[in-house]
Amino acid sequence: MIPNPLALIAEITHRCPLHCVYCSNPLQMAGAKEELATGGWLRVFQEAARLGILHLHLTGGEPLARLDLKELVAGAHACGLYSNLITSGIGLSETRLKEIVEVGLDHIQLSFQDAREGPANWIAGAKAHAHKVALAATIRRFPIAFTVNLVVHRQNLDCLEEMITFIEQLQPERVEIAHAQYYGWALKNRDSLMPTREQLDNCLRIVEAAQQRLSGTMRIDCVVPDYYARYPKACMGGWGRRLMLIDPAGRVLPCHAAGVIPGMQFDNVLEHPLEWIWTDSSAFQRFRGEDWMPDPCRSCDRRSEDFGGCRCQAFLLTGDASATDPTCSLAPMHNVVENARLQAAGQGSASEVVWLYRPNPE
Amino acid sequence: MARPLGSSQPRFAPGCRWGKQGDDQVVLFPEGMIRLQGTGQSVLELCDGERTVEEIVGVLAGRFNSADPAKIREDVTAFLEALQQKRIVDY
């Protein structure tokens, strides 16, 4: 029997005032004209709650770019979903925050690019940092959970201690220190984003010390990035096992990046019930379970822990979506990851970096 | 952060609350959910930000009148400390 999904990631728009060089949105983004209307989303949230989904992650792009965000949060709350707003904060005033908290927002996750204004705005491709700092103080006055998300990479990891001290002052309950993952725009910028082994070792030491020091005050989550791990990540908790993602146009995907895999058909919530898409659609069945697995995955003891890693990464790095995730040290094509690490180690300083910034869709 | 004291008044941390999964009552928080059973659920239901830990121990001792209050106090404070470290409970 197929278990219920637990969370729905709703990319309600791809529009965004930021241009972060590691954005997880696909290279082919949905335009404003394609976006699902308010009523479409509200119906989907009801279907999601009936399907057993508990958590709704309102994300983008920048979800605040949707002027109906308050109606969407209210609709999610009315059907019992726990609502998370994943945002850059651009477009959020105290008045607007008050409105969405009043209709039932449970949690806000605010992204930061750095502790230092110049480097933060350099990564975001926009003057966003000062607004975020001011907004964090406003958020803390509301009775909602507050998480800070900080993406770390080669260009900011040497300032990690300073960044943790900075985030501590914003007083969130949680901070996610997320290593850039190489899909979409981040893959285009990988050579300038990938940390060195030395940076990673320092990072893990700093995080462990901070976790001890801040225990009970600020919870710090941080995982070893897969390019430097022995085994792949359990991407999305396994294909079609826990999560569904709906893009701005209503197409339902098993993860953020699945659109890169050739031959996939993503069914749309305008044409099919969410339950059918979860249980029966070809996209969700394609890599569900273990039948698709090649060796060494199919005989590996870890296959029920990491589910063979990430299908999108397998395709992006080997050209075959059914291959063992090459970040796995047991993968036949692990050499492509070893080569990427070597290439990163040979990169020059920040002054030589030329970013490909994520554009704003029409 | 230290363990709760007898006079601490535990409550949900901001943005953490009860929810339903089918007929089961679960605790919802930003990264996920936990399904509590038996005593754990009873303890958290008593955490309203007003009752003290000592009062919660008293209520539970009354419910299980054969149990040793010192043992209940130990279990309750360890449970609340674990949830506080996950930032699900404040006291």
User: What is the makeup of the main sheet of chain A?
Assistant: 9 strands, mixed
- Overall mean pLDDT of chain B: 93
CATH architecture heading of chain B = Orthogonal Bundle
**Secondary-structure element pattern of chain A, one letter each:** EHEHEHEHHEHEHHHEEEHHHHH
* Spatial gap, N to C terminus of chain A: 42 Å
Would you mind describing this structure in some detail?
The complex is a heterodimer of chains A (362) and B (91). With 362 residues, chain A is an alpha/beta fold. Chain A has 14 helices and 9 strands. A 9-stranded mixed beta sheet of chain A has the order 7-6-5-4-3-2-1-8-9, with helices on one face. Chain A is globular, with a radius of gyration of 20 Å. Chain A starts with 6 loop residues before the first strand and ends in a 17-residue tail after the last helix. With 91 residues, chain B is α+β, with helices and mostly antiparallel strands. Chain B has a single domain (11-86), classed as Coenzyme PQQ synthesis protein D (PqqD) (Arc Repressor Mutant, subunit A, Orthogonal Bundle), CATH 1.10.10.1150. Chain B has helices at 38-46, 53-63, 69-85, and strands at 11-12, 17-21, 24-29, 32-35, 89-90. In chain B, 31% of the residues are buried. Classes of the chains: A alpha/beta (362), B alpha+beta (91). The interface between A and B is medium-sized, with 24 and 23 residues.
Secondary-structure topology with pairs:
The complex is a heterodimer of chains A (362) and B (91).
Chain A: E1 7-11, H1 38-50, E2 55-59, H2 69-78, E3 82-87, H3 94-102, E4 107-112, H4 117-124, H5 129-139, E5 145-152, H6 160-170, E6 174-179, H7 184-188, H8 190-193, H9 197-213, E7 219-222, E8 243-246, E9 252-253, H10 274-280, H11 282-285, H12 303-306, H13 311-318, H14 335-345
Parallel strand pairs in A: 1-2, 1-8, 2-3, 3-4, 4-5, 5-6, 6-7
Antiparallel strand pairs in A: 8-9
Helix pairs in contact in A: 1-2
Chain B: E1 11-12, E2 17-21, E3 24-29, E4 32-35, H1 38-46, H2 53-63, H3 69-85, E5 89-90
Antiparallel strand pairs in B: 1-5, 2-3, 3-4
